[in-house]
Amino acid sequence: MTRFLWVEYLIFTGNMLQVYKSPFFLPARTSYRDPCMTNRLGNAASPYLLQHAHNPVDWFPWGDEALEKARREQKLILVSIGYAACHWCHVMERESFTQAKVGEILNRSYVSIKVDREERPDVDAHFMERLVALTGQGGWPLNMFLTPDLQPLHGGTYFPPEPRAGRPGFTQVLEWLAERWANDRTALQQEQQNMLHHLEQSLPLPRFGPNSHPHLPSGAWQQETLEYWQDRMDPVFGGLGIQPKFPQPVILSFLLRQAVQQQDQELQEQLVQTLDQMAAGGIRDQLGGAFHRYAVDRQWLVPHFEIMLYDNALLARLYLEAWQAWGYARHAHVARGILQAMVRDFRLPDGGYISSLDADSANEHNQSVEGCYYTWLPEELVAELGAQDAQSIITHYLTQPRGLAEGRFTLRLGTDITQLDTVEHTLAPLRHRLFQLRSQRPPPARDDKVLTSWNGLLLSALALGGTLLADPDLLQQARNLAEHLLQVPWQQGHLVHCRRQGVMNEACFLEDHAYLLQGVLDLYEADYAPRWLTAAESLAETLEARFATHPDLPWVMTPVETTTPLPSRMELDDGVLPSPNAAALVGLSRLALLTGREAWQERCTRIRNNLALYLARQPAGGAELSRAWALAPEQAVIVEIVGAWEDPRTQALLTAAARHALPGMVRRWQPTTAPLPKTLHLATIPPDDAPKAYVCSHCQCQQPVTLPAGLIALLEPKYSSTS
Description:
- With 723 residues, this protein is an alpha+beta fold.
- The protein has 25 helices and 25 strands.
- Helix 9 runs antiparallel to helix 10 and helix 11 (309-326) packs parallel to helix 17.
């Protein structure tokens, strides 16, 4: 049995994500793997690597053994990078890597290395940068062909097994490179040297140095960043670009901050439209609450169905920030649904959260089909719910245009999308029945490795959700996750990036420390427990000790003591994740304000000065870094609440401060009996014991206020929040 599909493979073009299509016939997914044959990946912890454990390819994991073999035998290297929930990684695996012919060529002429991009973001970032420089595009699966000394010869994303739609077949590429390496090596090496020259011209040059202090005004580059991304907004259906549509929450969050700070009504309307269209579209699991990775069309109708932890952590925060800024209840409703879905579907018994849910699941014929778990046919609804109830679902969720995926329909709210929360409440019994019916289907596979960095992003979202939604359960989930992350993923005193079923990967990265630092600080500003501030200081000290290379420069991606065959990197630009350097700079800036540690404040100032020139030249990369500029001493706002914790007046002030906070503000609480920190710069303290709020900005403090209305009056002019 065969099915006709459009191949859709993800690529980067410049700063935008795109999907390209080509038609072909694909056999129904069955197992091509030989369960009696296991390669080196059979001992891997990564679910993605384990998916290739029964290939006829003699795969190596990334490491010294594979690289030494290539050098010793002077063989070409194939580095093939993907992740467990990647649909087209699955396609290439079953089309090519399960085939005996492909295995024979690779085993004879190559050293084949399989990499989980989520497990080794450093390896992925290195080769992705080179692929984009060589071809102008990139994505996953990522396949790079290298010389024995790791220099690139050729690369691409998805390769069909045979030539198709103008793309070379995988076996064709393998045989061509192998033949040239064997018989025409000198010419191939000369071409490779020319390619290196091209790479040197194409890869980003150092944009700053320890002696460059341009002191460029931040407003100029932030305005350029705003204009760059605002020009790419879809005026009809919202979002960035036309199709496919990626939510890109990091960019949307930047635009949201700019809309609020500049009181830009037009941009606000564009963003509200974007958030509403996404929430109503097929990209959102209308029954479960989480978001799929991206939509293949302009209208957000049909997604690629994988569900990623990092996407949902960032989207939950985005919707919470929108509710905080503009007060639309439906945005709070969507954020709550995302967080509840993560707790329900992603949390492990030990307290960590898994990485993703696969796009594919089994249909009634036990064939793996993309989106089968999430999609419906009208006749299924009638059979399961009865004609009358089915018509209610069809009226609200299967309206024109319908999102068609593999002959089945995605659910999309087709009625007034501004009433999303009301519709979901009204249809709650029917939605629950459908959810329970769906739960009886074979579920998508889970990538159950726990990534410290992604869990740190979720910690931030849970803490913010618990605070803004006044949800004690979400706040407790944040505390539980923080306790887990501060105790479990550690080995010999070092934080580790990845673990699965008790097995820890020794690698660690800047993103683990930076995102966890941010999450712990967000939790501190949710319940003000001193232990979180203490933990944040410890994380910051470790981050500085392990990832800093110069007092004036940002941090490298891997620990300075790590020996690696790849050059060290400073990740400055945002990708699907926020820039790790932006997160680190924001975290250290917040700590400097909260603790008054001048050395940290000076360090952050030097980094900002050195990054200003880069941001002026590369404004598209400054979305997340802009948060750090708002935390500069001359820009930041410090809110100090002083009062007994159990006093309702104290709680009212804390709630008002949280509800009206935006980046650029840090918040502290102190009991009445505690000495006020020197950051308040007040010579005299009012003598009464009533709870008070102190607001300090531009290096000076206002007189304290005792009522929430007074605090809001002090904050609103600075942040233009109307909620």
